[in-house]
C-alpha cells in the first residue's frame, strides 16, 4: 500500500514536473525570438553591448535550441532588412565563437535563397543575398566565393530567349548589394570585380527601355529626370566606385568588433547556379525612380544627398523597407520612420515625403493599398506638427505646379489622397494660392484637378460645406448641387409623352401595387420606335424604361439605401424592360440623366445594376464610350466606374475558376479514397459511383461557365480597346486634316487612360494578348496608339 501510495504521489509530482518541462522550452523559444527581433531597438545600453550580450545568450542556448535559433535568424534576414547590419554582426559574433554554427547558418541561408527564388519571392531573395554580402564584412563568408556568386548572377545576362526582366533582376541584386560590400570585394578581388562591372556596363547599354514612358510619373525631365531604376542605380554605383567605395550612411556595428571578427574562420559559399527560367516565373516589373526634391528644396538644416549619390539609394531603400515591415500599423510605421538612424545628418522629412509619394505613384500599382499612405501621412503630421505639414504642403504645391506633365493615373491617386487628407484637417487649404487655374480653359489639368478635388471632398462632406470653405472666386469649379432631375414632376411638362403614365406608376408604387399591375400600367406607354399602324410587338421601348425608372428613382432619391431597396424590389420589372442590349444601354442613360449632378450616386447605382445583373459589363463599357457621354469622358468618376466594372468581371471569372478547381480536387480525392477502400461492399461502390457521376456533371457545368465567363471577359476588353482605338484614330485624323496639333489635353487624357487600362489590369490582359494583337493592335494602326501596346508588351519582355 505504502509503495502504491508513494508511486501515486510520484505520478502526480511527475505529471506536474512534465507540464513544467513541456511549457518551459516554449517559453525559452518565445524569449529567444523576442530577444533577437527586438535587438537594436530602444535601449539604455549601447547597440554593441546589446549585441555582445545577445551573442552570449544565444551561444549558451545553441546546444538545446540550435534549430530554433537558425530558423529565427534566417527569418529576420528575410523579413527585417532595415536591421540587416545588426543581424549580420550578431551572426559574425556567433561564428567567431562557434565555427560549425556559422557554417550551418550559411547553408540554411542558401537553402532559403533557393526556395524563395523557386516561389517567385524576389524581394525576399534580394534581402537574403544582401545579408550574405554583409556577412563578408563580418568575416563569416570568404570574399572570393561571394564574387563567384555574383559572376553566376551576371551570367544570366548572356542567356538566350529569356525575358529582360529576368536579367534585370539578377543585375539589380548585384548592384544593390555593392553599397554594403563593394569596398571589401574590391580590396580582395579587384580584377574580377572590374570584369564583373564591365559586363554589367555592356548589359545596361544594350537593354531595351521601351517600357519607360508608361511608368513615368512626369513626362518632363525637368526639374528632376525620372530615371529608369537600373540606370539610376548604375549611375549611383559608378559614382560610389569613383569615390573609392566610401559610403557614409550604412550603420556598421561590426566595426566595433573588428578585433574579434577578424580572428574568425571564414566559410566558402557553395557554388550557386541561378535557377533556370520557367514559364510560370513572375519577375518584378521594372520601375522608374520618383524624384520630387533636391538640395535646393530643403534650404535649412542638413543637405539632401544628390540623386546619383549612393547615400540617396541607401536612405530610400531603408525607408521603403520600414514601410514594408510596418505598413499594417500606421502609428508604429510613422514612429519607425521618424526615428530613422542617422536622421540628424539628412533632411529626413523631405526623404520620407518623397518616398511615400514615390510608392503611392508607383506604376502599375502601389506596393500597398492607397488609403494606407493617407493614414500614414496624417500620423506623421500628428507626430511632427511643427515641421512635417510644411514639407507636405510644399510637396503638394510642387505637384500642383507640375500637373501639366503628370501621368493621369497619378493625378487620380493625388486627388484621392489630397481630398482624403483635407477631410482630416477641416478642409483647410490656401486656395487663394491656386487662383491661376481660374484663368485657364476648364479642360486644362489645373482647373480640372481642383474641380475633381472639390467633387471628392463633397463625397467626404456635403455640398454646402464645400461652398463655405472655398473662396467665391472658385464658384465655377465648385461641384453642382447634387439634386435629382425628374422630368415628370413639373405640370409644365404635362405634354411630354408618358407624363400621365408616370403619375399613375408613381401612385401604383406608393400604393404597393404588384409587379404585374405596374407592368399592365406600363403597357399604355407609346413606343417612339414604332409607327402607329405597326402591330403591338414586344420591341425595345425607351419611353417605358424612362417612365418607370425615372419615377422609381425619384421616389427613392432620399438616400443610397432607398435606391438600393427600390432596385431590389422591382428587379423583375427592370429585367423585363432590359432584355435586349439597347434596353441595357438605355437604363444607364436614364440613371445618368436623373443623377447627372451626383457622380457618386451614378457610380453606386451602376455598381448595383451590374451586381443584380440588370445590365452587363459590356453594356457599361459601351455606354461610357457612347457619344451621349463624350462631354463627361475625362471626368474622374467615369473611369472609376469603368475600372470597377472590369474588376467585377475579373472577380466573377476568378470565382468560377476557383469553384471548378475545388470540384476537380474533390473528385480526385474521392477517386483516391475509392482505390484505397476497393475491398468494401458493392452498394458502397454504387453510392460512390453516383457521387462521382454528380461531381463530373458539376465539373462539366462549371467548365462551361468558366468558358462563357472568359469569353465575356475577353469581349469586355475588346469593346474597351476598340472604342479607344476608334476615338483616338478619329481625333488624330481630324487634327491631321485640319493641320492642328493633335496633342491636346483631351488627347493626353485619353492616351493615358488607355495606358491605365493596360497597367491596372495587366495580369488579365496578358491572357488575351494574341487576340488583341490579331484583331486590334495590328501594324496598320497609328503609331501613337500602337506605341502604348508596345510599351505594355515590353514590361514583361
From TrEMBL:
Main location: cytoplasm
Pfam families reported in the protein's UniProt record: MIF4G (PF02854), MIF4G_like (PF09088), MIF4G_like_2 (PF09090)
Region annotation Disordered: where it falls in the sequence: 1-25, 665-696
InterPro entries registered for this protein in UniProt: ARM-type_fold (IPR016024), CBP80 (IPR027159), MIF4G-like_typ-1 (IPR015172), MIF4G-like_typ-2 (IPR015174), MIF4G-like_typ-3 (IPR003890)
Biased composition range(s): Acidic residues: 679-696
Record's signal peptide: none
GO terms classed as biological process: 7-methylguanosine mRNA capping; mRNA export from nucleus; nuclear-transcribed mRNA catabolic process, nonsense-mediated decay; regulation of mRNA processing; regulation of translation; regulatory ncRNA-mediated gene silencing; RNA splicing
Protein name (database record): MIF4G domain-containing protein
Amino acid at each position: 500500500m505504502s509503495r502504491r501510495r508513494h508511486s501515486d504521489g510520484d505520478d502526480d509530482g511527475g505529471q506536474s514536473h512534465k507540464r513544467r518541462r513541456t511549457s518551459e522550452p516554449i517559453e525559452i523559444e518565445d524569449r529567444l525570438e523576442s530577444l533577437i527581433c527586438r535587438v537594436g531597438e530602444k535601449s539604455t545600453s549601447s547597440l554593441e553591448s546589446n549585441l555582445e550580450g545577445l551573442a552570449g545568450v544565444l551561444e549558451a542556448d545553441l546546444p538545446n535550441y540550435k534549430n530554433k535559433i537558425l530558423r529565427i535568424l534566417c527569418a529576420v534576414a528575410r523579413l527585417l532588412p532595415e536591421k540587416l547590419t545588426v543581424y549580420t554582426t550578431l551572426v559574425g559574433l556567433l561564428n567567431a565563437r562557434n565555427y560549425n554554427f556559422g557554417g550551418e547558418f550559411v547553408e540554411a541561408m542558401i537553402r532559403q535563397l533557393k526556395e524563395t527564388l523557386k516561389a517567385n519571392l524576389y524581394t525576399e531573395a534580394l534581402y537574403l543575398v544582401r545579408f550574405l554580402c554583409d556577412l563578408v564584412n563580418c568575416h563569416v563568408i570568404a570574399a572570393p566565393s561571394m564574387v563567384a556568386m555574383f559572376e553566376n548572377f551576371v551570367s544570366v545576362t548572356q542567356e538566350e530567349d529569356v525575358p529582360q526582366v529576368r536579367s534585370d533582376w539578377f543585375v539589380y541584386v548585384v548592384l544593390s548589394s555593392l553599397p554594403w560590400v563593394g569596398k571589401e570585394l574590391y580590396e580582395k578581388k579587384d580584377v574580377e570585380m572590374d570584369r564583373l562591372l564591365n559586363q554589367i556596363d555592356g548589359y545596361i547599354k544594350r537593354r531595351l527601355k521601351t517600357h519607360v514612358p508608361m511608368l513615368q510619373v512626369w513626362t518632363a525631365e525637368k526639374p528632376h529626370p525620372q530615371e529608369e531604376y537600373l540606370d539610376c542605380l548604375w549611375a549611383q554605383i559608378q559614382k560610389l566606385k569613383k569615390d573609392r567605395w566610401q559610403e557614409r550612411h550604412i550603420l556598421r556595428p561590426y566595426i566595433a568588433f573588428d578585433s574579434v571578427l577578424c580572428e574568425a574562420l571564414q566559410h566558402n559559399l557553395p557554388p550557386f547556379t541561378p535557377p533556370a527560367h520557367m514559364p510560370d516565373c513572375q519577375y518584378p516589373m521594372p520601375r522608374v525612380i520618383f524624384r520630387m526634391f533636391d538640395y535646393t528644396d530643403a534650404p535649412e538644416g542638413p543637405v539632401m544627398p544628390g540623386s546619383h549619390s549612393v547615400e540617396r539609394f541607401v536612405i530610400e531603400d531603408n525607408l521603403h523597407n520600414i514601410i514594408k515591415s510596418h505598413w499594417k500599423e500606421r502609428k508604429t510605421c510613422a514612429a519607425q520612420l521618424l526615428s530613422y538612424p542617422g536622421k540628424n545628418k539628412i533632411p529626413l522629412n523631405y526623404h520620407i515625403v518623397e518616398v511615400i509619394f514615390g510608392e503611392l505613384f508607383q506604376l502599375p500599382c502601389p506596393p500597398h493599398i492607397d488609403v494606407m499612405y493617407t493614414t500614414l501621412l496624417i500620423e506623421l503630421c500628428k507626430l511632427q506638427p511643427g515641421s512635417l505639414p510644411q514639407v507636405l504642403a510644399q510637396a503638394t504645391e510642387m505637384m500642383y505646379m507640375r500637373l501639366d506633365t503628370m501621368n493621369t493615373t497619378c493625378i487620380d491617386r493625388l486627388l484621392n489622397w489630397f481630398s482624403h487628407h483635407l477631410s482630416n484637417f477641416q478642409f483647410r487649404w490656401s486656395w487663394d494660392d491656386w487662383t491661376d487655374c481660374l484663368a485657364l480653359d476648364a479642360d486644362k489639368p489645373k482647373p480640372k484637378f481642383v474641380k475633381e478635388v472639390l467633387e471628392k471632398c463633397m463625397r467626404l462632406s456635403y455640398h454646402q460645406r464645400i461652398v463655405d470653405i472655398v473662396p467665391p472666386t472658385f464658384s465655377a469649379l465648385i461641384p453642382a448641387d447634387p439634386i435629382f432631375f425628374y422630368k415628370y414632376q413639373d405640370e409644365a411638362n404635362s405634354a411630354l409623352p408618358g407624363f400621365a403614365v408616370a403619375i399613375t406608376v408613381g401612385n401604383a408604387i406608393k400604393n404597393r401595387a404588384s409587379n404585374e399591375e405596374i407592368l399592365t400600367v406600363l403597357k399604355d406607354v407609346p413606343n417612339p420606335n414604332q409607327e402607329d399602324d405597326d402591330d403591338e410587338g414586344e420591341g425595345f421601348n425607351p419611353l417605358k424604361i424612362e417612365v418607370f425608372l425615372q419615377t422609381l428613382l425619384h421616389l427613392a432619391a432620399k438616400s443610397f439605401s432607398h435606391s438600393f431597396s427600390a432596385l431590389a424590389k422591382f428587379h423583375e420589372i427592370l429585367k423585363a424592360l432590359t432584355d435586349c442590349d439597347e434596353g441595357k444601354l438605355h437604363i444607364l442613360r436614364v440613371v445618368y440623366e436623373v443623377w447627372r449632378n451626383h457622380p457618386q450616386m451614378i457610380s453606386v447605382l451602376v455598381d448595383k445594376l451590374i451586381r443584380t445583373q440588370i445590365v452587363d459589363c459590356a453594356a457599361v463599357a459601351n455606354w461610357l464610350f457612347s457619344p451621349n457621354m463624350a462631354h463627361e469622358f475625362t471626368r474622374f468618376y467615369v473611369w472609376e466606374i469603368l475600372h470597377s466594372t472590369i474588376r467585377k468581371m475579373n472577380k466573377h471569372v476568378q470565382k468560377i475558376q476557383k469553384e471548378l478547381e475545388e470540384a476537380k480536387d474533390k473528385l480526385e480525392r474521392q477517386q483516391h479514397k475509392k482505390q484505397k477502400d476497393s475491398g468494401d461492399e458493392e452498394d458502397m461502390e454504387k453510392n460512390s459511383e453516383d457521387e462521382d457521376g454528380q461531381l463530373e456533371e458539376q465539373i462539366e457545368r462549371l467548365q462551361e461557365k468558366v468558358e462563357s465567363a472568359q469569353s465575356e471577359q475577353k469581349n469586355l476588353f475588346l469593346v474597351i480597346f476598340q472604342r479607344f482605338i476608334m476615338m483616338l484614330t478619329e481625333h488624330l485624323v481630324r487634327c491631321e486634316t485640319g493641320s492642328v496639333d493633335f496633342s491636346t489635353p483631351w488627347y493626353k487624357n485619353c492616351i493615358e487612360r488607355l495606358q491605365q487600362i493596360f497597367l491596372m489590369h495587366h495580369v488579365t490582359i496578358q491572357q488575351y494578348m494574341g487576340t488583341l494583337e490579331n484583331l486590334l493592335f495590328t501594324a496598320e494602326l497609328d503609331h501613337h496608339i500602337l506605341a502604348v501596346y508596345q510599351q505594355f508588351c515590353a514590361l514583361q519582355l
